[in-house]
Amino acid sequence: CTTTTQLSLTTFCNLLRNYASSTARQNDADASTAAAAATTTKNDKQHPSSSSNATSKWLYELSSKIPTPLPPLQFSLGILSAITTASNDESKLQSSLFELFGEGETSIEALFEVMGRTDEIKRDVTEGGLRAVAELKGDV
User: Fold this and answer.
1) pLDDT of 86-136, one tens digit each?
2) SS3 content of the chain, % helix, strand, coil (to 5)
3) Do 11 and 96 meet the contact criterion of CB atoms below 8 Å apart?
């Protein structure tokens, strides 16, 4: 027996905000490590750090698990675009990502993962990095 629950956008945004806040508090403990990684990435754009490669790979692999008609590369580029376009507008970011991910348990769980790592994605992931992962996977 399967029960389908449909969240209102307001309820969803509140849940997402609470999750992002708790994740942000957890990430504050690692702020010095993140700052060092960001400095390394900015100083060496030609040779991305292993953390940026790992984040690109994680995002691409997550995108391949989402039930969507888009190929993983296009979906992951859509996520990156939504995050970079929304800048500091949290409601715009939430709305864009919710529209991209859609409904469903797998999609919502993945959306929460992405929301918890938006700063990392913004800092470490590039279109070129995602395309490189797709090429390594043989998807391009």
Assistant:
1) 878 989 999 999 999 999 999 999 999 999 999 999 999 999 999 999 999
2) 75, 0, 25
3) no
